[in-house]
């Protein structure tokens, strides 16, 4: 019993498959694609818009406000036009669609009583999710630091109304603050990507 529990807690990419399992897998046709596959495209488009906002909000602060705010009347700030590039709206779209897609798969497995697949999927998502979320955010913040260091993008003098001086010390302090799991009072803002 304990061995079976440990087997299902182990991520799928760390499991050894027997040759008979490999043979049966090769004989089967490719698995049917989920009916929610089209939603991956929606998630991808939303994440691309959020990514562009993170890179543009410092140099183009008007993307953070709507039409009519402080007498701004650009056509780009109209509500439906702004939805195409507004990161705040796309964050909501991404999380709602992601929540549905992830939950839908596990609810289907529960409904069909496919408990081994359910437990394998839950353990896999538990272990891999942190790596999949943290590594791209770290790479993105490192890219912002390197681009600012090389002069490709200019670092602002102030971030969130506070004086800001770009440098390795500032970047390491940012990483220390944002990756500290024991400090829940940290401000999640900054030049090196506020999504961390």
Characterization of this structure:
- The chain contains seven helices and two strands.
- With 196 residues, the protein is an all-alpha fold.
- The protein folds into two domains: 35-113, no CATH class; 133-196, no CATH class.
- Strands 1-2 form a two-stranded antiparallel ribbon.
- A hairpin with a 2-residue loop joins β1 (158-159) and β2.
- α3 (38-56) runs antiparallel to α5.
- The longest helix is centred in the C-terminal third of the chain and has 36 residues, at 115-150.
- The protein is globular, with a radius of gyration of 22 Å.
- The two termini are 40 Å apart.
- Residues 21-27 have low confidence and may be disordered.
How would you summarize what this structure contains?
The protein is an all-alpha fold.
Strand and helix layout:
Elements lengths: L1 H8 L9 H9 L10 H19 L22 H4 L4 H25 L3 H36 L7 E2 L2 E2 L4 H11 L18
Helix pairs in contact: 3-5
Q: Approximately what portion of the residues adopt beta-strand conformation?
A: under 5%
Report helical residue fraction.
Answer: 55-70%
Spell the H/E element sequence: HHHHHHEEH
**Basic shape:** globular
Mean pLDDT: 77
Spans of at least 5 consecutive residues with low confidence = 21-27
Task: Tell me the structural class.
Answer: mainly alpha
Number of domains: 2
Instruction: Tell me the Rg in angstroms.
Output: 22 Å
The main sheet orders its strands as 1-2
Distance between the termini: 40 Å
The tally of helices reads 7
Number of strands: 2
Q: How many strands, what sense, and barrel or not for the largest sheet?
A: 2 strands, antiparallel
């Amino acid at each position: 019993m304990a061995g079976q529990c440990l087997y299902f807690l182990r991520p799928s990419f760390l499991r050894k498959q027997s040759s008979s399992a490999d043979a049966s897998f090769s004989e089967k046709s490719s698995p049917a694609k989920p009916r929610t596959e089209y939603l991956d495209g929606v998630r991808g488009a939303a994440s691309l818009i959020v990514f562009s906002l993170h890179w543009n909000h410092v140099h183009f602060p008007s993307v953070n406000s709507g039409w009519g705010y402080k007498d701004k009347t650009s056509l780009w700030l109209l509500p439906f036009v702004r939805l195409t590039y507004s990161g705040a709206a796309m964050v909501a779209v991404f999380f709602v669609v992601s929540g549905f897609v992830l939950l839908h798969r596990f609810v289907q497995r529960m409904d069909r009583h496919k408990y081994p697949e359910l437990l394998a999927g839950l353990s896999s998502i538990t272990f891999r999710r942190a790596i999949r979320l943290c590594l791209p955010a770290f790479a993105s913040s490192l890219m912002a630091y390197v681009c600012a260091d090389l002069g490709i993008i200019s670092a602002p003098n102030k971030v969130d109304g506070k004086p800001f001086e770009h440098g390795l010390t500032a970047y390491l302090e940012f990483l220390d603050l944002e990756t500290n799991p024991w400090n829940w009072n940290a401000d999640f803002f900054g030049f090196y990507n506020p999504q961390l």
